[in-house]
Structure formats: structure tokens, C-alpha cells
């Protein structure tokens, strides 16, 4: 997918004489307006509709959408259903496209041993280049695994995430979800700023 481009102006970033005439306030207003126009595509993994934990996943989606209007939050199920061409692909091939197009992947792992889909997704992309840099992990402090593969993931893959990309929650955290939603909100804002700076740097290179 071709990346969006920012509406940057040559007179500001091209070294034109007009740039010297702009005040801090004018430049800040322009930069912040461009930042505000930068969307964040968020892929939200977690429990399916048949699990009680699904409500928490949807709670996070609703929060990110309402609190930060620039967030475009979708579940993998929603994206697959949104275009019939996904039906022609294997489920994991479709999800690989989604991961590549996402700016941020939020993996909400419930402690429920009956929920295994999100573990499969994490295992699938464990060796995907760049995955751990764009993903954050919402992980229970106490896990009740029902399969050896889940235990293997715990020991192998947690170390691949940087500590600031992991939120380990207690049962109280998961019940009220406030701290989890706040963590996701802060990460979405960080990823938006990071995306904006990358686009701005690319635009600047194109101008010179």
C-alpha cells in the first residue's frame, strides 16, 4: 500500500526565503495541523465474540476511537469481512497483509485458556521483520495455559518485545480496563507522532 503523504510546503522545508519570515507560532500551527491530519491504522487482536473477554477488546476499540479521533481501529475479523477478496486468501495470508498495512498492532491476550487465536497470531508473526517494533502486548500477570505452545510462547516471545511495549495486567486491571485503555491510548499517540515524523522526513528529502 502506498503511504500517505503530508501536505508539507516547500517554502517551509525547502529552504526558501519565506521560511525565515515565519514565526514560531506560524510554524507550530502548521506542523501541528499536519500532525492532526495524520491517521493511525490500528489492528486490534484478542478474544472472539464467543468469549466473555471480547467485551474488553471492544471496549478498547471504542475508547481509542472516541478519545483520539485520528485512530482507525479495526479487528482482523472486520477487515476480512470488509472486502470479499480476502475470502480468496488463507486467513493467515490475509492477516499478514493487515499487519504490514497497520501502523500499530494491539494484541490483547486474556487469561482464559479457551482463547487461543491471539496466541496463534503472535506465534505466526514472531519472526516477522519489524513486527515487534509495531506491536504492543496486553498480557496477564497470571496465565492459565491449556497448551504447551502457549507456555513456549511465554518464554520465547515476551523477550522479543521491548518493556515499554508490554502491559502486564492484574485481574482488577482487566475487570475495569481503565489502565489498559490508557496504556493503549498513550501508545497510539506515540505511534502517530512517530509516523508523522517519518512522513515529514521523507517529504523533506523529496523537496531537496
Structure, explained:
It is a single chain. The protein has 208 residues and is of the alpha/beta class. The chain has ten helices and five strands; from the N terminus they run ααβαβααβααβαβαα. The protein has helices at residues 10-13, 24-36, 54-67, 76-82, 91-101, 117-124, 131-134, 148-157, 171-176, 178-207, and strands at residues 40-45, 71-75, 104-108, 135-140, 166-169. The chain has a five-stranded parallel β-sheet, with helices on both faces. β4, α8 and β5 form a beta-alpha-beta unit. The chain starts with 9 loop residues before the first helix and ends with a helix.
Task: Name the features.
5 strands, globular, single chain, alpha/beta
Helical fraction equals: 40-55%
> Uncertain runs with pLDDT below 50, 5 residues or more?
7-17
Outline the biggest β-sheet.
Answer: 5 strands, parallel
> Over the alpha carbons, how many angstroms does the gyration radius reach?
20 Å
User: SS-based structural class?
Assistant: alpha/beta
From the N-terminal CA to the C-terminal CA, the straight-line distance is: 24 Å
Count of runs of 4 or more consecutive helical residues: 10
Report mean pLDDT, rounded to a whole number: 84
One letter per element, helices H and strands E, the order comes to HHEHEHHEHHEHEHH
Topology, number of strands: 5
Strand order of the largest sheet: 2-1-3-4-5
Q: What portion of the residues fall into strands of 2 or more residues?
A: 5-15%
Shape: globular
Brief sketch in words of this structure:
Helices cover 51% and strands 12% of the residues.
Amino acid at each position: 500500500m502506498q503511504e500517505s503523504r503530508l501536505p508539507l510546503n516547500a517554502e517551509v522545508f525547502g529552504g526558501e526565503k519565506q521560511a525565515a519570515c515565519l514565526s514560531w507560532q506560524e510554524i507550530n500551527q502548521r506542523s501541528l495541523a499536519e500532525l492532526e491530519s495524520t491517521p493511525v491504522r490500528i489492528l486490534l487482536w484478542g478474544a472472539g465474540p464467543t468469549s466473555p473477554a471480547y467485551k474488553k477488546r471492544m471496549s478498547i476499540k471504542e475508547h481509542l476511537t472516541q478519545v483520539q479521533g485520528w485512530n482507525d481501529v479495526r479487528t482482523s475479523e472486520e477487515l476480512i469481512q470488509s472486502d470479499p477478496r480476502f475470502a480468496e486468501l488463507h486467513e493467515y495470508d490475509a492477516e499478514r497483509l493487515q499487519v504490514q498495512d497497520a501502523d500499530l498492532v494491539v494484541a490483547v491476550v486474556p487469561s482464559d485458556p479457551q482463547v487461543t487465536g491471539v496466541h496463534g497470531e503472535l506465534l505466526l508473526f514472531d519472526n516477522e521483520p519489524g513486527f515487534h517494533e509495531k506491536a504492543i502486548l496486553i498480557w496477564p500477570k497470571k496465565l492459565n495455559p491449556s497448551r504447551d505452545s502457549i507456555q513456549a510462547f511465554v518464554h520465547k516471545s515476551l523477550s522479543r518485545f521491548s518493556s515499554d511495549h508490554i502491559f502486564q495486567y492484574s485481574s482488577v486491571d482487566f475487570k475495569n480496563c481503565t489502565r489498559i485503555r490508557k496504556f493503549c491510548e498513550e501508545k497510539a499517540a506515540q505511534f502517530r507522532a512517530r509516523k508523522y515524523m517519518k512522513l515529514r522526513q521523507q517529504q523533506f528529502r523529496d523537496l531537496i
